[in-house]
What we know:
By secondary structure, the protein is of the alpha+beta class. It has one helix at 60-69, and strands at residues 3-9, 20-27, 45-47. The chain contains 1 helix and 3 strands. It is globular and about 35 Å long. The relative contact order is 0.29. The structure holds zinc ion. Zinc ion is lined by residues 24, 33, 35, 37, 59, 61-62.
Amino acid sequence: MEHELRAEYVDGAEPEDGEVKTWHVVREEEATGMCGRELSPEAALRSVDDWGNAGMPICHSCGALYLRESP
Ligand SMILES: [Zn+2]
């Protein structure tokens, strides 16, 4: 299964100019994080290969669930 990282923005921010608060893991290109968090379908996507990059805060719940699902 393909996973991607989708951005959650700081409160009230729009995807175009938003400052990213947390990256959630989504399955394929869904707009709902694995933790159940609803995200904007306009929010930025990044590859899970970017996991662990400095300056990319990852949702802890998504992280735990993702690690359980990945081989
Ligand atoms: Zn999450």
